[in-house]
Amino acid sequence: MLTKPNDIEELLYFSQRDFDEGGEFKAWVFKPTCEKCGAKLGFKGKGSKCPDCGENTLRKKSARSKEFYCNTCETKKNALVCEGCNTGFRKDDLNLQMNIEYTCPHCKEQLEAQIPWKKKGKSIIFKCIKCDGKLTIKQLK
Fold it and tell me: When comparing pLDDT for 125 and 74, which is higher?
């Protein structure tokens, strides 16, 4: 049984829609907690510590952006920032899990799965746990 969110503020990602092949899904990823202070990680942060150089120069390009830019390293960072101590963490270094409730378009069963949250291009691809059918969650444009 998957843990369900109580509030959207607990989540990094949430989506509920239909697969292109038929069937439907609801998917979510919980915000991880900071190893240093125990607060939640998220996309908020200004003057946060860069996970590579350690300087307090991690900034977002715009208020709605989900990517950070380090003024010292002069590179884009795929990072999350602690809402408590302002430390930056690489998303790839975190073990993020996506929780999915879905109706498989192939076997028509209502199932649940938990998979690593790794995007291949602009999609998340996984197999049905019952029939091994390939399922794709495409990113909305």
Answer: 125
